[in-house]
Design a protein that fits this description.
The chain is mainly beta and 415 residues long. The protein has no helices and 30 strands. The strands form seven sheets. It has a five-stranded antiparallel β-sheet, with no helix packed on it. It has a five-stranded antiparallel β-sheet with strand order 2-3-30-29-28, with no helix packed on it.
Length: 415
């Protein structure tokens, strides 16, 4: 795909390197590709990243010169990266993007904002950014949430969107619907340049859960999987949506967290799920678990009824991290990688500045955790999103830096 670089925006070249002490089964270094240092050019990158075939990275900042920014990072031949703000949101175009972007084959970017929009109480939008020949990008709002009475079409999306094979978009809203428990929606192109929204499922905030913060994923059969942060017990669910022959969808609650004694199975899964080739689901819980700092889990299907949960790692709140908000990502060898918002042992942040971790499966079914990097000091950290893997390296964001020294960063992990 042809790379399109804005010609009208200031460009900054930054390369920083954090050198790590070598440790067994850990990366030898973590590189900072860009550190946000000017509030007017982006602040608080809480979302994950996406990349194109040329190796460019795209992301969002929750705040910035307007109501949030969309940025591009381009690798240079000398190992540095060039950062450019490709679009600054206004309140009418949406406000405060907190989810990763989605890239189509034509080079267009799709995303959501938690707030903003043309009217309807500023309940967020789905937007598309289209590259122009002169290097600028055109913003097009595909849908304004809370367009229907009592926001039955959803409000305040905090997740990314994904495509199906027919070019339809799917995502979640954290609120809205008849019970104001959030919903899963579909956006279909209507043939005249617009998009039509339909609600696939509205959560009742009962046993089926409520407040889906993360997005959904497809399996090969066309079923959708996702998480909710709350349910009747208050600690979240994993759900499946299966398409019916009549065009509707059937919801199944695969697992309710805080199901075990003392909530050893964790609670509040904020991050998206990951699916392996065998059909097992992997994710994280931000809270509870054996030590109260969340865990990494695996869900395995059974012949009938709810799925079996297996905890792969319990975070202790120490050097191994605490409170993972993002999901986990596989590398090409079957290892899992992720981040935690806090923990790691640093005194620079209240409760620690977070870590990048790796989980390695053992021959006996036990997974072993390694801390690849513990954020601290000048660069702070507190990553709120998971990592993206391009086949070679992982990329992620930190949401903050130390006072007076920036507003978050983009980093690379070399496994």
């Amino acid at each position: 795909m042809k790379r399109i670089l804005p010609a009208v925006l200031p460009i900054i070249i930054v390369t920083l390197v954090w050198v790590l002490a070598p440790s067994a089964n850990a990366a030898s270094k973590l590189e900072s590709l860009y550190k946000f240092y000017d509030y007017l050019k982006g602040d608080n990158p809480v979302a994950g990243l996406t990349y194109d075939s040329a190796g460019n990275l795209y992301g969002t900042t929750k705040y910035g010169g307007g109501a949030g920014d969309i940025f591009e990072l381009t690798p240079n031949s000398d190992g540095t990266w060039t950062e450019s703000v490709i679009h600054t949101l206004s309140g009418l175009q949406g406000e405060n993007p907190v989810a990763a972007l989605t890239l189509d084959s034509a080079g267009n970017l799709y995303g959501t904002t938690q707030y903003g929009g043309t009217d309807h109480g500023a309940a967020g939008v789905v937007f598309e950014l289209t590259p122009n020949r002169d290097g600028t990008w055109t913003d097009n709002v595909l849908y304004d949430f809370c367009s229907l009475s009592k926001c039955t079409d959803g409000s305040n999306p905090m997740s990314n969107v994904i495509f199906d094979q027919n070019g339809n978009l799917y995502g979640t809203t954290s609120l809205g619907g008849p019970s104001d428990g959030g919903l899963v929606y579909k956006l279909a192109p209507n043939g005249s340049g617009g998009w039509t929204e339909s609600v696939i499922y509205s959560f009742t905030t009962g046993r089926d859960g409520g407040t889906p913060v993360a997005g959904v994923i497809f399996d090969k059969a066309g079923n959708l999987y996702g998480t909710t942060v709350e349910n009747g017990l208050g600690w979240g669910t994993v759900f499946e949506l299966s398409p019916n022959q009549d065009g509707g969808w059937s919801e199944s609650t695969l697992y309710r967290f805080c199901h075990l004694e003392n909530c050893r199975d964790g609670g509040q899964p904020f991050g998206a799920l990951t699916l392996d080739a065998a059909g097992n689901l992997y994710g994280t819980t931000e809270d509870l678990g054996a030590y109260g700092y969340g865990n990494v889990f695996e869900l395995t299907p059974t012949t009938k009824g709810p799925w079996n949960e297996k905890v792969l790692h319990q975070f202790t709140g120490g050097d191994d991290g605490a409170n993972p908000y993002g999901g986990v990502t596989f590398d090409s060898t079957g290892k899992l990688y992720g981040t935690t918002y806090s923990g790691g042992g640093s005194s620079s942040c209240n409760g620690g500045c977070g870590i990048v971790f790796k989980l390695v499966p053992g021959s006996n079914g036990v997974w072993h955790e390694d801390t690849i990097y513990a954020f601290n000091g000048f660069f702070k950290g507190s990553p709120e999103a998971g990592l993206v893997f391009n086949g070679s390296n992982f990329y992620g964001t930190t949401s903050r830096a130390s006072n007076g020294h920036g507003f978050g960063s983009v980093f690379e992990v070399i496994p």
